[in-house]
Records
---
Amino acid sequence: MKFWVEEAGIRWGLDDSTAAHFSLPEQHQNTWLFGLNRMLLGYAMPSEAGLYNDVLAYDEVQGLEADLAGKLGEFFRVLIDAQASLNLAQNGEQWVQTLTTLFTELFDLDTGEELAGQLIRSQLDNWLTQLDDAGFSQPLPLTIVRDYLSEKMGGERVSQRFLAGQVNFCTLMPMRSIPFQVVCLLGMNDGDYPRTIAPVGFDLMAGRGRGRAGIAPADDDRYLFLEALQSAQQRLYISYVGRSVQDNSVKVPSVLVTELLDYCRQGYCLAGDERLPEHESGEKLLSHLIHHHPLVPFSKLAFTEGRQSYAAEWLPAARGEGELALPFFGDDALSTESDTQSNVLELAELQRFWRMPVQYFFNRRLKVVFEASDGAMEDAEPFALDNLNRYQLRDALLTHVINQGDDEASLSAFFQRQKASGSLPLSHFGELALEAEQSAILAQYTKLKPCLEAKRVPQEINLRIPTRYGEVSLQGWLDDRYRDGRLLYRSGKVRAKDRLAAGLITSANVQRVRLSRHVLSVLMKRSYGCRLRQMKPSHDFRTT
């Protein structure tokens, strides 16, 4: 979907009227509705058919993917209708009807979310009741309705039943000392409990209340901890993180947990340890009460020493039965020994390797593809072209005039197509950008036009090249052939890789192939990495 949005030319705004809300002229190009129309039209017709009502079809929306475009269209239909209704001033009854309809169309609540939906409906009903009691029936703008509902719903909480099932999760709160069979206290680390509440800056009582009678927040947490102890009927489970996940250093529990352990050590002992010294019986009691669990699920300690783990997928790793992963860069990647691979080399593969040898080695041999990270989506209206878009515009214009001519009608059709694709800047900025690039491209076309006459069909290449590993068959097709020879052109500057690609074949009739004997052996035996810095000078191989 992100690729569709970028390719369809969507930049900013919902529809034509979005810019008018900010006191700007209406603009259809590069809006969401503009791109959505391109997507839906692309499912009905190809872009080669031309414009339909000034809309250029986007060809990527095909087959089963059209269902996603249909859902996106339905979503924007709801948004456009909501934008039109929310911008109108309405009375209370009309606002409740509009918001209820919008809530029903946008949200599909399940059983767990029904309480939140009921809260919203109840607030709307209460607001309508207040308006009726006050006898207020004048139209209200959206700002007043939004401020009122934000204030009311911001202070409300979705109430839930405390006893919702066999297992209940809750926070420590007063007056919840209800007997339970098992009580579990989680996250009882030092600094987390008792909770630390930082005073606000404008609270003058925070500094003056020291030493005076009152209940501190820490005392409240001590009382809640005591209530949790009294609620446990059979088991009391207290958990805290005892080791740091960064350096495995020891982390202490809450001071309340430490005091509880000290109390148990001083007042109790295990059966049969009554005659032992106090410190020995206390240490044995602590070792019985405190259990150390591993931080990782595949640790051997999770499956030994009387513990039982239910994560069966980690059992082979704990037993040491796992298999070692194959090395990422093995000796076979750089092997130069002969193999059973075919001795046929495609010309396109040779050119791709010649341009970027390291990338070719990673893609073809190691099966590694380094994909560029997706950048942030453009959310600003385009008023100027960057270097990449400027080159793409020049290249598209050059291709168009070569195929369609450079007359006024052809250039006007090209402008309309580029505008319909959303690739040009807005309004007259697009005309200025096209005029700035048009003169240079037409001058280049004037030089290329005499060389583009009498285009010939592609010629097949089938050469037998002797190498140290045997003969190699170089196969491919030689295209871009004209009466005067093979013509390669580019709307921008000629780069080094363009010269390399053109230098592999130096004549149109394929009389000479200039390449390195060692490059062929490297390509055929897939040993690019270890030999690239040892390439020998190029040799000429003449063909018969």
---
Amino acid sequence: MSNPLLEKFETPFETIPFDRIRPEHFLPAISEAMNAAKKEIDLIKKNTERETFGNTVVALEKAQYQVNHLARIFFNLHSAESNKELQGIAKEVSPMLTDFGNDLTLDRELFERVQKVYDKIDQLNLETEERTLLENTYKDFVRNGALLNEEQKEKLRELDKRKSQLALEFGDHVLEETNSFELYVDSQDQIKGLPEGAMEAAASAAKEKGHDGKWLFTLHIPSFLPFMTYVENRELREKMYRAFASRAFGKNDNNNSDIVIEIAKIRHERANLLGFKTHADFVLEQRMAETPKRVHEFLEELLDYSRPAALKEMQELQEYAKANGGPEELQAWDYNFWANKLKKEKHELDEEELKPYFKLENVVDGAFEVAKRLFSIDFKERRDIPVYHQDVKTFEVINHKGQHVGVFYADFFPREGKRSGAWMTSFRSQRMDGNTDIRPHVSNVCNFTKPTESKPSLLTFDEVTTLFHEFGHALHELLSKCKYESLSGASVYWDFVELPSQIMENWCYEKECLDIFAKHYETGEKIPSELVARLKSASNFHSGRHSMRQLSFALLDMAWHGQDPSSITDVDKFEQEVMGRTNILPHVEGTNMSCSFGHIFQGGYSAGYYSYKWAEVLDADAFEFFKEKGIFDKETAESFVENILSRGGSEHPMELYKRFRGQEPSPKALLKRDGLLN
């Protein structure tokens, strides 16, 4: 059987031939790529010449390209366009890849060659990026068990294989729980308060499922969030909230409680095996924050400013709700509803008033125009690049000299095969192959409201900032100019990776930027200055509460991973103990965050969720610099590309940041921006 994954891609820019790929192609292709990689690794080991940076470290990097490339294609589809068949294949592919990685890093002969090169690091006269690659390669071996004895290595293999299986099960359960909940409503009276656009989307969703004349609501964010924000029926809001907050925590086969505990225990055992006190100590060795102690100090400092503000905000909200016919005590399903009303009253701002100015296509064009003004690149839509779903659009990215920069995929609407949330991923990362610059293929995947028969896709302001956020990650990949794939683009410390994404959100609050794309979808009128002024004044609305929410997730993550979890037997009890001091609303029985906390139990954010707040400090500080010179100042933008976006992980991020900013960042910039510090 011919396998398109193993042939040269005869497509524009060697993009993936999705139109020819079938699920059954993945297992044989990945197996063959692994066999080819193992042969190349054998040649490295059998090389009788003296070990050098080129014949050992660079050769090893190159040997893994094809395996990494195919694995990336597979798991990107598994996240964005999954089905039972792909989920089944993932259960085979995942342990295969774990074994492949372990075979490599636990290979004594291979490690000895790497170690011999590493021992001479100061005599090799390496460039900065070459030195980083050598240090990373050596550390990867050590952090993956190269210094262990044979019995310990075998134990590590078992732990890694089990961990990868559990992460897949965790994600499959959350996806299944998200997809299986459906709330059908028969009468408009039950959903009074819901905006016309959300109502139309719900009617359209019901019609698609064969329930014409009804309204369908799901746990996908474009359906769930408007429901929680606008529907007056408190009983139905409670029903929706409980369904959302109890995903993978119910009394059924999708319950993730045991999986969460087992993952935490495996991570701890693995860290101990490698000589670390906890999983957090292991992770933070390769982060800007460096130690759990520093992370806790950082979170506590922000908590000291956030908590008093959050308590004051909630007291005001409770009084407001009570005075306007609300409940005696606010519950979790009341927050969005009453906060929206209060925000509207205080700042005369309603999300629905903003949405007509944020037609999806205009916002996308706006993001492209911002990139053009800052970084001198253009996005040209292509219709000849194969895609994995009809909703996906593709663009060629070119620079001001007309040179090819990369390919950008945009996948914006929810569907059953796609996990919730928003993310950037790449199908191919940038690297040098001799003198040839292999350019990246990057994708932004989101879950925005789909267009209806009478309305285009109109975004909330939160969705606008999400789009710019993920686009910032894409720019980090697209503007990379590194030698080695493992150091290029967004392959940086996880507490640095959010800087390029979060800084882009700042432009969304500036009239100069909004004038580019925020035009009323019916009249073409630019967003009025007074509406932007209200948007800015409302930007700090409940900033204490929003900060507390992020800090509560970060502290929960550190609680799971910064101690020995062997005594944890009850996920819910443990979670409540940890989150008790950050909860500003009563706990809802039967709900649980950990069991659907994909960032830390399925994604790569374990012992790293604090990174969002850490990067907020970086982005607030960095954008202050832009504002000093002008938000479209070319010189500042060029410095940002030169020192941040193009350099990937080729150097320690603090050095890169200081080169751009001229100083280390201060948390005060963030506290000031959030209105938590005068």
